[in-house]
Amino acid sequence: MTILLSNRDARRIFLARQGLANPPNRALNKAGLLQLIQDIGFVQVDSIQTVERAHHQILFSRNQTYRREHLTELLEKDGALFENWTHDASILPSAFFVYWKHKFRREEQEIVERWRKWRGEGFESAFEETYERVLRDGAIMAREVKADGHVSGGWWNWHPNKTALEYYWRTGKFAIAGRTNFQKVYDLVERVLPAEFHAPEVDHDAFVDWACRSALDRLGFATSGEIAAFWDIISPQEAKTWVETHRDELCAVLIDPADGGKPRLSFALPDFPMTIDDHAEAPARIRVLSPFDPILRDRNRAERLFGFFYRIEIFVPEPKREYGYYVFPLLEGDRLIGRIDMKADRKAGTLEVKRLWLESRVRASAGRLEKLEAELERLAKFTGVDKVVFLEGWRGGES
């Protein structure tokens, strides 16, 4: 049996699975935060702080009683969360660490090949001494082992010890014990994660099965490519083979795209038909999303479901940017209605709104602008500034 799912139902289900249908003001304690991250899967980490760092904003957009110190405790004190890579650096439940062991093993082979092309022969010259130092002395930061005279730069100019630290982190020998001014503190993984999370590696079939089922659970429905892309720990071919192998068990779902085009075939877990009506509607309020929000991670999927084309223009030369350096998507209910360019000026104590762009067919009604201002005031308070300031011409980008 194949289910035809309307675009509205598809959006509702996806937002609910990603924690955006929960009451945003319901009290969230530390245990609730851990459960939220487990429910959505991962929270991407990024250093840009135009308004707020990505991981904090992702969590705040889902629950506005979120407290940063709870996340720090879960990461640095309890070891209930760990940092490593999905498609990018992310915060993950430590209960998933056993599955990342497969990714670490692959990284050991692939990273060496990639990094040798990037850094040249001998790039691993400091690996052994760096490992021995951490083993002997405990947690360190890259700046503590920086060679005299080395000029710091981006990832393309890591000093040899920094390269070693990143390699051992990416391959599961080291873990992030904490951050100081957002700089990583590295230590042996067995000293960071509690013993309960050091289970033996599962076999390959069990690993792929977990990766596919857990991705589908958090997406609601997906193509094999979307399943593979969710965690980015299995290959597209592995996901495709898994879907083919479990085809009789999975539920086929045709998803109506936002543009009214041809429905797209996806797959869901067996209980999906019984749970379609169990997903709550997203709150009607407007919420400012991080550019790295999980619902936008797969840009093509977001465009099909929401009819919303979004790209981060950080690396686009300024004259060629369509919108701006770091522009935030706006979610109203179950619709992505536009984007906003803004910046927190912490010295002045203001959240400066530079420009608003609304999607076509989205009116800048008085009620909608009031909802937007209310959200901006909530965000300003969370960010630690006193007031929202609308700069001249901020509505110049309305459709």
In short:
With about 400 residues, this protein is of the alpha+beta class. The protein has helices at about 5-15, 30-40, 55-60, 70-75, 95-120, 125-135, 160-170, 190, 205-220, 225-230, 235-245, 270-275, 300-305, 365-385; strands at about 1-5, 45, 80-85, 90-95, 140, 175-180, 185-190, 250-255, 265-270, 285-290, 325-330, 335-345, 350-360, 385-390.
State the strand order across the main sheet: 10-11-12-13-14
Based on secondary structure, the structural category is alpha+beta
Low-confidence stretches: none
Distance between the termini: 42 Å
> From N to C, what is the helix and strand string?
EHHEHHEEHHEHEEHHHHEEHEHEEEHE
Mean pLDDT: 93
- How would a crystallographer describe the biggest sheet? 5 strands, mixed
Give the C-alpha Rg.
22 Å
Q: What is the count of β-strands?
A: 14
Range of helix content = 25-40%
Helix tally equals: 14
Measured by DSSP, the beta-strand proportion falls in 15-25%
Shape: globular
Write structural notes for this entry:
With about 400 residues, the protein is α+β, with helices and mostly antiparallel strands. It is built from 14 helices and 14 strands. The protein has helices spanning about 5-15, 30-40, 55-60, 70-75, 95-120, 125-135, 160-170, 190, 205-220, 225-230, 235-245, 270-275, 300-305, 365-385; strands at about 1-5, 45, 80-85, 90-95, 140, 175-180, 185-190, 250-255, 265-270, 285-290, 325-330, 335-345, 350-360, 385-390. The strands form four sheets. A five-stranded mixed beta sheet has the order 10-11-12-13-14, covered by helices on one side. The protein has a three-stranded mixed beta sheet with strand order 1-8-9. A three-stranded antiparallel beta sheet has the order 2-4-3. A hairpin with an 8-residue loop joins β8 (about 250-255) and β9 (about 265-270). α6 packs across α7 (about 160-170). The two termini are about 40 Å apart. The mean pLDDT is about 95.
